[in-house]
Amino acid sequence: KPQWELSMINSHFLYLFYFVPVGRCTAEWRPNNSPKLMDLLDDTVPGIGTYEDFNTIDWVREKSKDRDRHREIANKSKQSTVALLFSISDAFSGWLLMLLIGLMSGALAGGIDIAAHWMTDLKEGVCLNGFWFNHEHCCWASNETTFQERDKCPQWKSWAELMVGVSEGPGLYVVNYFMYVCWALLFAFLAVILVRAFAPYACGSGIPEIKTILSGFIIRGYLGKWTLIIKTITLVLAVSSGLSLGKEGPLVHVACCCANILCHFFTKYRRNEAKKREVLSAASAVGVSVAFGAPIGGVLFSLEEVSYYFPLKTLWRSFFAALVAAFTLRSINPFGNSRLVLFYVEFHTPWHLLELIPFVLLGIFGGLWGAFFIRANIAWCRLRKNTSLGHYPVLEVVVVTLLTALLAFPIEYTKMSSSELISELFNDCGLLDSSKLCGYTSNSGSTSGSVNATAANGLGARLAGPGLYTAMWQLALALVLKMVFTVVTFGMKVPSGLFIPSMAVGAIAGRLLGVCMEQLAIRHHERDIFRGWCSPGADCITPGLYAMVGAAACLGGVTRMTVSLVVIMFELTGGLEYIVPLMAAAMTSKWVADALGRESIYEAHIRLNGYPFLEAKEEFRHKTLATDVMRPRRGDPPVSVLTESGMTVEEVERLIADTTYSGFPVVISQQSPRLVGFVLRRDLVISLENARRHQEGVVSMSPILFTECDPPMSPSAPPAVKLRSILDLSPFTVTVHTAMEIVVDIFRKLGLRQCLVIQNGRLLGIITKKDILKHMAQMANRDPDSILFN
């Protein structure tokens, strides 16, 4: 061609290259009579951007949506006063939500405490002044109550006194024994029946599932209104039945249910799963705050143990919500002692440096107990899951309750509730204490149920008497029973917490060691090692402190908590001087337990149930590449993909029907598999259904387009459905040579659902969170098919 024609062609090409915006098409390119393409997100389609049950959310997408929403509100707030007021209310809504969660959770926790205390005492008798009074409240108004027999008053009648009219003798014991067992069976039976009939998700502690949900997993109904109602009722019944369980773990579940329900009244939390999980992290802190009366410990528990994503803003709001919940519970005053927990204690006796040795021994015991409990409980739960035992949950609960009640009633320390037992063990003996744990005698041989004011050599020494020896062997027997029953109880189909039973085991062991150390120091106070421990008018050793340290050690061994555990115990006791013993025991317990197994009880149950949870604490040390994990593998059919043009509605619907994948990569064409983007299955299904309903002329042969430019179309062709709006144009990609260590870190830190594997821009495969979990299980010589959910 002539040179000037080539010059004109080049000039026109340069004009198009430089001046036509990239990704936009001029209207002249479309034939005048071609049908208009439909953009499904010109108006928001209901359901787009939501997730199906048992799927993982896309954290990056959710955070991007929230940033866009904030940007839009900020721009509109500059245009009108109404928009400015809306912007202010939107910013304030988070704090209002925290206030409501704190109020609701604190009120529910107070009601649970009051009801559980009353129903626990109902197993032993009833108050004549009013059946709604528990034993302690019934005797408060009596003028005939003494300090030595403060639990006896004419207004409180045991079931034997009411039914057969006997107040002493074997008949009294037999009738009370029978009624105790009957009430325990009734409470446990009602609890398991209500859980099975109305809310199967209300069983267990809930913390493993809360951890999984906070990591981005969707479990519909787990935090619903029916779960909240049934969990609240059955938690009272289960605790009152006398089973070896606590209410502290389930209170975290209850608080998260409150948060999830209240989130539905706030648009920005209802429509954004990532924002909702920030609220749930704060609710976890609220649960521990009302369980232990420890707001700061609750915030640290959420940060250390439960939360997956915990920005600084969530820290402030968690603190505020925990504060409101603790204030609400304090206003209700469920225990009548102006405290938030039943076993609040105060110690004033200083500890000695050499006492760190028994404190470390308690830490070792706690670590051993934690490792033993996790292995034994997981073995029992796996047996329940894989055998016919799992088909009879009601029978299992009734049998365990029957054995627990039969063996617990004869022993004073197993008959009482676990919270009362911990309170008894934490308590330091005073002049007015009538407990067998305070059954000391002086060197002169006189025996008293209380502490003698004088002792040998002018020391405040307390030699063990017959009452203390009786208490010791009863505590040793109670320790064995508590350990066995806690193993078989945790995981049954009733609400069951682990904090209180673990603390009870440690408190018993600590009290036993504390009494032994006390007697050793008293009998050998003249030796160099104990010299200076016992001073005139003061106690040598505080056994209650050992019980507290033992409780912290055993709880730390089971849950692997450290910082939050120490703060919770500090808030329980109010003693700054005991932080060092608690820290020593907690760290020793964690070291010993980690040496025997890296998983806490919650992580072990997550793995047992097959939840897709990537634990941030677990290191990936294997030298594998992305090509070793991606699908398809060698010999498998190629990965199912969509093309950006050339496919019809019928072909896409057939692909959806023939596969179960959560999403599909989009490529240029089958011949040129260059990656364009990624589309979620749910968004694709909803968009096609919406197009068939609302777009005129859409038929099975209508083309599907993911392109932005409108291609030339025949006048007789059916209208096309344009789906570029639901296409993720920037999916995360790695190459086949990327180390799996890096891929795992990407999934953990960004919360990805899937990652595409490419080579020179060509799509080769896909890696999902499930693929990574299966690979990690295979590398650890575990069954990769144990990962149940998609």
UniProtKB/TrEMBL annotation:
GO terms assigned for molecular function: voltage-gated chloride channel activity
InterPro entries: CBS_dom, CBS_dom_sf, Cl-channel_core, ClC
Main location: membrane
Pfam families: CBS, Voltage_CLC
Membrane topology of the entry: Multi-pass membrane protein
A GO CC annotation given for this chain: synaptic vesicle
Protein localization: Endosome membrane; Membrane
Keyword Transmembrane appears in the UniProt entry: yes
The entry's keywords: CBS domain, Chloride, Endosome, Ion transport, Membrane, Signal, Transmembrane, Transmembrane helix, Transport
Segment forming the signal sequence: 1-27
Bilayer-crossing regions: 81-103, 177-202, 223-245, 251-267, 279-303, 353-374, 394-413, 471-492, 498-517
Domain spans labelled CBS: 630-696, 726-784
The family this protein is said to belong to: Belongs to the chloride channel (TC 2.A.49) family.
Name of the protein: Chloride channel protein
UniProt organism field: Cyprinus carpio
